Amino acid sequence: MKVLVVIDMQNDFINGSLGTKEAVEIVDSAKAKIDSYLVTGDTVIYTQDTHTKTYLQTQEGKKLPVPHCIKGTPGWGIFQRVYVSGCQVIEKPSFGSIELAELIAVIGGEDDDTV
């Protein structure tokens, strides 16, 4: 079984506070890739950059002083055109995610084909 991880394709990163035209331009190809995994029965996992209202007081917020992906706001949501209901979403407060690594290990088990 293969695993596709869709990293932080959230409103704020596509057309919100940190959005770019390049991010908008990859939406259709990202959706096609997601669909190709699902049609073969493979797994799709989304990550969701997640901050609190005190983001600007954090170490990251002091270096990137743009409020974004504040939990519960529209910008925090996964971009609707790429989201597929029923797929797992992992909230992460920083760049990496131990939870994601552990989930992939469980899904993949001993299967060396997991990517």
Automatic annotation (TrEMBL):
InterPro entries: Isochorismatase-like_dom (IPR000868), Isochorismatase-like_sf (IPR036380)
Pfam families, per database record: Isochorismatase
Domain Isochorismatase-like stretches: 3-105
Superkingdom field: Bacteria
Signal peptide: none
SUPFAM superfamilies assigned to the protein according to its UniProt record, in alphabetical order: Isochorismatase-like hydrolases (SSF52499)
Name under which the protein is recorded: Isochorismatase family protein
Source organism of the structure: Clostridium tanneri
